[in-house]
Amino acid sequence: MSCKYIIVVGGVISGTGKGVSAASVGLLLKFRGHRIDLIKFDPYLNTNAGILAPREHGECFLCDDGTETDLDLGHYERIAGINMSRSNICTSGTLYKELIEEQEAGKYLGQTIQLSPHITDKVHERLIELGKEKDVVIAEIGGTVGDSESYSFFEAMRQFKQKLKDDVLIVMVAPILWVNTIKEFKSKPLQNAVKDLQRHGLQPDAIFCRVDRHVPEKILNKVSQLTNVKRECIFEAPDVQSIYQVPLEFYNRHVDDLFVDLFRLSRSACRIHKYREVVEKYVGNSEQAVEIGIFGKYDNCDEAYMSLKEALIHAGVANDVRVNIRWIKAEELEKYKDNRGLHKYFEGLDGIIVPGGFDNRGTEGKIKAIQYVREKKIPFLGICLGLQMAVIEFARHVCQLEDANSMEFDKETVNPVVHYIEGQESLTKKSANMRLGAYECELAKDSLALDLYGNKTIHERHRHRYEVNPKYLDQYAKKGFRVSGTSTGSGLIEIMELDRSVHPFFVGTQAHPEFKSRLMNCSPLFKGLIAASMKNKTIEKTIDKI
Predict the structure, then answer these.
(1) Predicted TM-score of the model (pTM)
(2) Which of 32, 244, 359, 408 is most buried by its number of CB atoms within 10 A?
(3) Which of the residues 140, 460, 514, 522 is marked catalytic?
(4) Domain 285-421+429-538 of CATH type 3.40.50.880
(5) How is the chain split among helix, strand and coil, in percent rounded to 5?
(6) Which of 63, 384, 441, 522 is catalytic?
(7) What digits encode the pLDDT tens for the residues 368-392?
(8) Domain ranges for the chain
(9) Catalytic site residue 540?
(10) In this structure, what DSSP letter does residue 115 have?
(11) Is 514 one of the annotated active-site residues of the chain?
(12) Cis link prior to 204 (omega < 30° from 0)?
C-alpha cells in the first residue's frame, strides 16, 4: 500500500494548535496499528531554530541526532510517541540554501532556478522520502494560510495533491469565534480562511473548528454549506485542560474513523485504553500537590521552557501528585548583596529547578538560589547551565574558591571550574562549537542517579558548549559533591550529586532530560525530584526570615 498524506494548515490566526492536532491524529492512527510519521514545514528563512528568540518562538527543541528545531516537534514526540530527527523539519531557509548550493556547484547547468519546479519538487522529495515504509505521513505547514512567505509550501501541496489525488487529504485548523459583547458565534473568519486556501487551488477535506465552548449545529451546518466541506468532516476541537486530552477528544468525535475511511485503511481497533487511563488520572487532579520553583532567565514565558513544564507534568503523573510551577526570574535575586531577604522567593516551594540557558544574564541570581536550597536542604535539580551554576556555587562557598567562575562569563578567571575543552569539535554532531544530540553516559555505583535510572548506561540529549572542569573534582568529592555520571569514551562530566547523607536530593546534569520525557514514560530525574519534593513537603520546616 502506498503511503497516505494528511496536510494540516492553519486559518485566521496562528497558535490555534495545528501541531497538537497533527500529533493527536498521528497517535490515534498509531494506536490503530498504522506506521506514522510527521513533518513540519516552516516558512521562516532560518536554517534551524538554535538562535531564535525563545520569547518569540518558544523553546528550541532538540532531537536525538542533534537537530535544533521548532517546539512543535516536541509536541510530536510527546503526544505521538515517536522520535524526531532532521528529516522531520523543513524550513524555507534550508530549502533555499540547499538549492543555491546545488546551483553554485553546477548541478542545474545554466537552468533558470525557480520556485516551481525546483523548490516545490524538493518539498515533494521530503514527503516521499519520509513516507517510505510508512502508512501515513502528517505534514504541518507553519503559519496561516494567506501568509506570503508560505506560498511555496501551499503551491507544493497543490501539485502534490494533483499527483497523488485521494492519497492526500487537506485539514484546516481554524477558530470559530465567540464574540462576547454580542453573545454570538462568528464563522466568517474561518470561511474566509477556506477561501484563501481555495485560491491556492486547495480544498479542505476536513476542518477542525477551534472553540472555547460548544457550537450549535446550525453554525456547523453553515460552515459546511459555505466551505464545500461535508458536515461529517467538520469537527469541534474544544479548549481542554491539557494537551494530552486532545487525542481523547478526537477519538470521542471519531476523527480517526474519518481518515481510516477516506484512506481505506484497515479498521483495526484503536488501542487507546491505557492512554485514556493515564490521562484521566492526571486530569482528575490529585488532591496532593507540590510546588516547584523554576529559577530561569525568563519568567511568565511557559513556551520558553515548554519541555521542562511538560516533564514536570509527567513526573506528577508518575508520583500521583499535582505539580504547581512558580516561575522566578533569577535576575531578581541579584539585587540582594547576600542571602538576607531571599526567603520570600522560597516560601511554599517544595523543590526547585535551575534550567539551561546561554549568556550570563541572571547567573549570579541562580547561584544565590542554589546556595539557599543547598543549605536549607530543599530538593534541587540543575539542568545543563543549572549543573554548571551548582559547580560554581559549591566551589565558591564550600571549597572557598571565591573567584570560581565559568570561562563563558569570565575568560580570565583564576579558577575556571567550567571551561571549554580544546578539540571538543570532534565530539560534536552538527555544530562547530556545541555538543548536540544524544550521548551515552555511564552511571557510578551506589549513586542516586543509578537508583533513579535503574540502568548503568543511559542516553540523554545535550546542547551546550562548556563543560565541568575535572581539575577540581577531588576538592568537591572531599566535601561530598561527586561525579555520578560520565560520558562514555570521553569521560566528560555528565551528572554530579551531593551525598545523600549531606542533602536529600541535590542533582545536576549536563544533559537535557526534559526532551526525552513522556507522559507514559517520564524522565527518572524529574520523577526523583518530585518524589523528593513530596517527602520534603511532609517535613515541618521553618524558614528563617532574616
Answers:
(1) 0.91
(2) 244
(3) 514
(4) yes
(5) 40, 20, 35
(6) 384
(7) 999 999 999 999 999 999 999 999 9
(8) 4-278, 285-421+429-538
(9) no
(10) I
(11) yes
(12) no
